[in-house]
Amino acid sequence: MNRLLFVLLFCLPLLAQDVTSSSVLTTATCGPVVSVKTGTPGGSATYRVTWWSTGFTGYTINLEGSQDNSTFTTMNATGQVLEGSNSTTWSSATASNTFVVRAYLPYVKVCISSLAGSGTVNTLLLGYKGTNATPLAASGGGGGSSTVLLSCNAQAEVALSGTGYTQIVAGSGSTVIKVCKVLVTSSSSGSPTVNTFTASFGTCSGTPTEVFNAAGITGLDSDFSGSLIGAAGAAFCVKEAVAQADKVTVTYIQM
Fold it and tell me: Which of 34, 85, 127, 254 is the most buried (most CB within 10 A)?
């Protein structure tokens, strides 16, 4: 099997986005206003809002839009909310910190209100052209693939040790690791060894849960666009069948 095609079989659905706006909010306020009238974000008509927080025991988060950058309203008319709830009243029991809105207004922003306690809310707004925020399927065609990585704000680079699992990204409390890209490069100076690479989430020194296994290759370059997700508190681990200290580079977000 063609090695590129083999690697692509392990790629989860991909996303392409036009708007990325983040904010760190500590009071009842809004993040930056994003204009989607012109330029790269022009025409974005579907938005995913994702967030994580510390300290607060409750708050409300919503996406607002405006025709004139003056009067803003919550974008939650009938048929506009495709996933979750806009507004979401958050608590520690909230099942998912994300929602999707399909609508077009030339100005948009993320806001929080009704705060309980004190703390920080980190928000991420992703905007897409067209009317669907559902991932597009990856193709194994002969020309390779072109991917925009989403939500990635951290990178780890670790050399594998032996044939057991090596921890690439440490778990932390109740946070979740979302992997955007995995790159494995040979350490053997131009004479790579055919190998098998296995990635898992969990306790790397124990028996973590396998998420993919790529065999019969000399390296790996796979885009997951944040859709390779571990359980809360789980570390991300990689191992190789032939010990040669290959280097693993992972881009990810931990939230």
Answer: 127
Dihedral of alpha carbons 18, 134, 150, 121, sign: positive
Residue 4 lies in a domain: no
Q: Which domain holds residue 203?
A: 149-254
Residue 97, domain member (yes or no): yes
Distance, CA of 82 to CA of 62 (rounded, Å): 14
- pLDDT tens for the 255 residues of the chain, in order: 334 333 333 333 334 445 677 888 999 999 989 888 765 555 677 888 888 888 999 999 999 999 999 999 999 988 888 888 999 999 888 877 888 888 888 899 999 999 999 999 988 888 776 544 443 333 333 333 333 334 567 888 888 999 999 999 999 888 888 888 888 887 655 556 788 889 999 999 999 988 888 877 777 777 777 777 888 999 999 999 988 888 888 888 887
